[in-house]
Amino acid sequence: MPIIVSQNGKNAQKVDSTPFGLEDRLQEYILDNPNSIPLYEIRDDIELVLLSREFQTNSGPIDAIGVDAEGNLYLIETKLYKNPDKRTVVAQVMDYGAALWKHLTNFEDFMMMLNKHSQSNFQCSATEKIQTYFNLTDETTEKVLERMRNNLDEGKFKFVILMDSLDDRLKDLILYINQNSKFDIYGVELDYYRHESFEITIPKLFGAEVKKSIGATTSDTVVYTQDDLISAYASIGFEDKIREILQTYDQVNHGSYPVKNVTANKSAKSINLYFNLPATDSFKDLAISIGVMRGKPLDTLDLWCYSPEQQDQLIEAIQNVLRIPTTKLVPESNYGRIGQWPLKDFSQEKLLQLFESLA
């Protein structure tokens, strides 16, 4: 469909739509212009930041992954109408979602991969990109990350199929899936025009018109209380260990823990202990976390470094006190897992020794 362009009401010119040419060009365009995906038609305040392109899964690369300010994860597949694979694009994008949910079970690993993409595209970490794009406080950013964690854990993704032209059968399929399933899947058709130095896109959204009540709940996540955690770990023979960890958590939050610079929080499914080195102004240089993943209690405590410049000091202390294997951060990564402490070997005494050695 042509459009008419004029300047100050004069010199009107007809401009015909321009093909994107290659799918790479379409991917580049939406990465640079995420608002070309018109989620504001679903709700006025929804915005999307894209964090990665060609995100690898066991089933192949997801063209783009995005997140909104509520922590919803969007898996985006781009296709040109001329591509013969467009018939299977719905199955393809959902296959990627299944692979992401099944094989990338650790949120920190997921974020590490997102960080590589974000560093490459925006020269900052994914967390920094989310925080600056949505202008969030540190506390609100942590809440967004926690919702992202829960959505990955539960396989709650929103799927977007973006094409230069959608045929009627694909539109009907998208409506049918939204009406009869718990999935949210949207089709976006982009009309693209070039005029002199200007680029014009006219996006059309399909699938949002279906009002869904299937599977509606008052909460978007399962929250494990302390009693729930004790029960979960009792089922695998580690009730005494989780009670020790919970006791440490309580001591820290009541100010009775013998080492300073330690903070703690409980998320929906995990317990997290943070230590900041005296020489830094960070609230967490080292994070130690354990909890339940997809209904199964983890049998290791994950140790995460959030200060790359301090990782040698952290690793030396971990090796000397805990005697466990460690690994260095991936180059240019802002944080990552540097060790896993088997829960069977955990003791409050060893944990205290680790914190004292760092303090």
Class per helix and strand makeup: alpha+beta
Our Rg estimate from Cα atoms comes to: 24 Å
Shape: elongated
Quaternary form: single chain
Low-confidence region ranges: 214-220
Overall pLDDT, averaged?
86
Distance between the termini: 68 Å
- One letter per element, helices H and strands E, the order comes to EEHEEEHHHHEHEEHHEEEEEHEH
CATH hierarchy, class of the largest domain: Alpha Beta
DSSP helix count?
A: 10
Strand content: 25-35%
Number of domains: 2
Main beta sheet: 6 strands, mixed
Q: What is the CATH architecture annotation of the largest domain? A: 3-Layer(aba) Sandwich
Helix fraction, binned, reads 25-40%
Here the CATH topology of the largest domain equals: Trna Endonuclease, Chain: A, domain 1
Quantity of strands, as a count:
14
Strand order of the largest sheet: 3-4-5-6-7-8
Please explain how this structure is put together.
With 359 residues, the protein is α+β, with helices and mostly antiparallel strands. The protein has two domains: 3-206, Trna Endonuclease, Chain: A, domain 1 (3-Layer(aba) Sandwich); 226-358. The chain has ten helices and 14 strands. The strands form three sheets. A six-stranded mixed beta sheet has the order 3-4-5-6-7-8, sandwiched between helices. Strands 9, 10, 11, 12, 13 and 14 form a six-stranded antiparallel beta sheet that branches. β9 (262-266) and β10 (270-275) form a beta hairpin. α9 (311-322) packs antiparallel against α10 (348-358). The N and C termini lie far apart (68 Å). Mean pLDDT is 86; it is low at 214-220.
